[in-house]
Amino acid sequence: MIFRQLYEPVSSTYTYLIGCEETGQAILVDPVVNAIDRDLHELSKLGMKLAYTVDTHIHADHITSALEMKKKVGSKIATPAIDGLPCTDVGIEDGTPFQVGGITLNPLHTPGHTDGHFAYIFQDRVLTGDALLIEGCGRTDFQNGHADTLYNSVTEKLFALPDDYLVYPAHDYHKRRVSTIAQEKDRNERLGQNKSLEEFREIMNNLNLPYPKFIDYAVPGNRKCGVCPDNLPKQLQEYCEQMTNSQQG
Ligand code: FE
Prior knowledge:
Elements: E1 2-8, E2 13-20, E3 25-29, H1 36-46, E4 49-54, H2 66-73, E5 76-80, E6 90-92, E7 98-100, E8 103-109, E9 118-122, E10 125-129, H3 147-158, E11 166-169, E12 179-180, H4 181-187, H5 197-205, H6 215-223
Parallel strand pairs: 3-4, 4-5, 5-6, 10-11
Antiparallel strand pairs: 1-2, 2-3, 7-8, 8-9, 9-10, 11-12
């Protein structure tokens, strides 16, 4: 099985390429529209065909490449069924394995960052989306987010996974790439060390984060499985432009 973690610098997003060598099929989890060429290049280097794009949630900080990939290479779109997106080919449900070739993702509904958020367990690792980040977590003040709900998702579902499971988040703003369940139980500043719900609420209520600069474009675009708006201000255009750094040296 092939597993690649790819970093997109505009939104500090990690996209995961998972490939089945037997069938030549691959999936991309949380692909970013401005990194399409990079992702297609990775797939062609591996000799793999993109069968599905899969999103953990409706993103507010980048636009998914799901729709553009479908147009370019005919991949299908999988998103959480609970979000009810008409552009989706397959709705992912809690506890129902999602299978492509020899790849099996076990979806875990982990609301709180958004109400429809899913984490995906793959073998000895979990793609945690924005529910659990390395020594942090996604914000809970937009998209029907709720601190209490996120607390329950992390402490009852993600922290219930085996300690040695690897934690692969959707973002990291310090270029850290991987953690483990045990490490997050110990070192996560918001949820580790058996933080109480009251402590977590207090932390989340006092983050004083700025209004997300791309959210008003990203959410409607992602509800259509990844449409870049026509009216994007100049300072936000990098979110929809192709990455300029060529991987071909
Ligand atoms: Fe998010």
